[in-house]
Design goal:
Blueprint (H helix, E strand, L loop, with lengths): L4 E7 L4 H11 L5 E8 L6 H7 L4 E3 L8 H14 L4 E4 L8 H6 L4 E5 L11 H7 L4 E8 L9 E8 L6 H24 L3 E4 L2 E4 L2 E2 L9
Parallel strand pairs: 1-2, 1-4, 2-3, 4-5
Antiparallel strand pairs: 5-6, 6-7, 8-9, 9-10
Length: about 220
């Protein structure tokens, strides 16, 4: 019998996406097992979520490392020690070195609060409002050395209303995050999703650059 895919989740904060993953695994929607939760901050609430779920957790405080390379070396050691086959970035507020990303090519997934390639980086909700966008959203993508530049797997759009604040928009986007991230992880754990030639491939079909079923 095929064993559940070993999942490692990297966090820096509240861990709402982590909780959605934990819940999806517990409900049998994801054929995987979260084997470690690694936080870059010792006070991240996501560590409590891991503890409550009985999941091993590791703190790698970024302030304790003299360089990005030293931090990523420690991160690699922790990931390899738990045998992770799928590495999920869930609000992990670190820019990863190219060597780290290359080491785990095709195993690294990230969720980003914009309709990539729009608004890479930070403050995406404010930027959408400043540009008077009528729609905004969230993307799940494979991680490559280019910041927020890996092949998109799926996107979910939300409307932008005239009187929205950044927090209004963030909440609307977060609701979509909690739905689409577990779905993508489900595909990955079932062996249906992969990255080939810098493209996302689902069920042997190349996913368009705008993501799965995005019309």
């Amino acid at each position: 019998m095929i064993q559940p895919t070993k999942i490692c989740v990297l966090i820096s904060g509240n861990g709402s996406n982590l909780q959605a993953i934990i819940d999806a695994v517990a409900a049998g929607r994801i054929y995987g097992k979260v084997v470690n939760v690694i936080s870059s901050k010792p006070d991240a609430y996501g560590l409590e979520r891991a503890k409550t779920a009985g999941i091993d957790a590791t703190v790698l405080d970024h302030r304790q490392y003299e360089s990005r390379e030293a931090y990523d070396a420690a991160l690699s050691e922790a990931i390899d020690a738990c045998g992770a086959e799928c590495i999920i970035l869930a609000g992990f507020m670190r820019i990863l070195t190219p060597d780290f990303v290359t080491r785990y090519t095709g195993k690294l997934l990230n969720i980003h609060p914009s309709l990539l390639p729009k608004y890479k980086g930070l403050n995406t909700h404010n930027r959408a409002l400043e540009n008077k966008d009528t729609e905004h959203g969230v993307s799940v993508h494979f991680v490559t050395p280019e910041l927020d530049g890996g092949p998109v797997i799926i996107q979910s759009k939300v409307p932008v209303f005239e009187n929205d604040s950044a927090s209004d928009l963030a909440e609307r986007v977060r609701e979509q995050e909690l739905s689409i991230y577990p779905l993508v992880i489900k595909w990955f754990c079932e062996g249906r999703l992969s990255m080939q030639n810098n493209k996302a491939v689902l069920d042997h079909e190349t996913i368009p650059s705008t993501g799965y079923a995005n019309d």
